[in-house]
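ARCHIVE CARD
SHELF: 3
SLOT: left
DATA:
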Amino acid sequence: MTTVKDVLDRKGSFVAYVNKSSTVLDATQEMNARRIGAVVVCDDSKVVGIFTERDILVRVVGGQLDPSTTLVGDVMTAPVACCVPDTTVEECRTVMTEKRIRHMPVVDENQLLGIVTSGDIMAQEKSRSQQTIKYLKEYIYGPYSHDPEED
């Protein structure tokens, strides 16, 4: 079974984060600069929430709040669903589907190690499917045979 650690080993462990006392404007500028849809919210290096594009739309824009004065800690999603490095990709997919979330911080003993996204899970599943297809083609046509469907 593929674990979150395997995903982080492949994609890297960088994760954008902000402090809960950051303004919404600062967090949004960070998200825009990195072209990402969420930042993890920390307080004293402990994960306390997540701030996403949906939070901006629903709580800030929908609530007619000023992003330059509104604090992330006041509009973030909390508590946040987290996983540990040994969590399987299948378990993450299940939690993400049930909770309707796209980002899951990876923590170990309250230390932020990375983040897994729904896109990471889809890429992992695509890679696994391609490996299965290759194996089955080699089984049917032989390891060095030409696949007639590729013509």
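SLOT: right
DATA:
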Amino acid sequence: MIPFHTLCPEIAQREVRCLHIGPKQDVDKLGPPPGEYAFMEFYCEDIFCDCRRGLIEVISKEQPGKVFACMNVGWESEAFYRKRLEWDPDAARGLVRGELDPLNEQSEFAEFFLEAFQDLVLDTPYRLRLRRHHRQFREELAKRPPGHLDLKSVQ
């Protein structure tokens, strides 16, 4: 998976979903530090793959280089993913709701960001945006010769 912004930088910059966390009122409250957290989109670079899912990394301007959470998300219906994931009936539900990616390291705040993603970020307009971004990503990918991605710009 590669970042959406490597192929569609203007759209990614204009349409990134962010979560703003203000100062804590109670010192005993657990949670991430105050700041702005962006939900960065990643999509599959295999032009022949039609998985219709993405990877979302939560990052912060205040702590560059740190990934606070890494989540899998799908924008199609549960029935769509259930057909593709017959061996694991629960996987479709998790993908549609958003779930922490088991292959990537998670921060101590990953569960917080997963709940925020599920409750605040992953609404119908955002699902439609992910679908559109995936289509735009694939269109841009198709314009490039195979194996010709500038991975230096992935940072």
